[in-house]
Structure formats: structure tokens, C-alpha cells
Write a structure and sequence with these properties.
By secondary structure, this protein is mainly alpha-helical. The protein has four helices and no strands. The longest helix has 23 residues. 21% of the residues are buried.
């Protein structure tokens, strides 16, 4: 497995512009944290894994709407939380 890259503004901009390599870096950097966050809410491993995938699908589908690097964590975890409680 490749080491997790430090996420910076250029990587977020790459995702916004449809760069799959940048999206993969985002996935590798955040998927475990998102899983722990979601699992802490729902306590079901398979459901947490599924929601993590759903979150990244939503990010990819709306990648052009990403505007602020400083708020990306909040954006990502808000999507995760909303996906978990619905």
C-alpha cells in the first residue's frame, strides 16, 4: 500500500478539476478516519464501510462544488454525518 500523502490545496484543486489520482490521494488520506467516525455512530462495520464508499461517491459526483481547501475536512465529515443519520 502506498503511504498516505499529506493533503494540500493542490490536491483538493486536482479533485475539483476531476483528477482521479488526486481523488485517490484523498480517499487514502481520509477513508480510515471516516470509517472510525461513522463506526462510532452506527456501530456496524459493514454499514460503516458502505457509508464510507457512499461518501466518496458523493464527493466525486459533486467534485466541482469543492471551493475551500480550509473547509474540506468539515465538508467531508458533514457529508459523512448526514449520510450516517439518514
Amino acid at each position: 500500500m502506498k503511504p498516505v500523502a499529506k493533503i494540500n490545496e493542490a490536491i483538493i484543486e486536482g479533485v475539483k478539476n476531476g483528477d482521479m489520482a488526486a481523488f485517490d490521494m484523498i480517499y487514502r488520506a481520509y477513508s480510515k478516519r471516516l470509517f472510525r467516525f461513522i463506526f462510532g455512530i452506527i456501530k456496524t462495520e459493514t454499514d460503516a464501510e458502505e457509508i464510507v464508499q457512499e461518501v466518496f461517491v458523493k464527493i466525486w459526483e459533486s467534485h466541482k462544488k469543492i471551493d475551500d481547501f480550509a473547509l474540506f475536512d468539515s465538508y467531508l465529515f458533514t457529508i459523512a454525518y448526514n449520510s450516517t443519520i439518514t
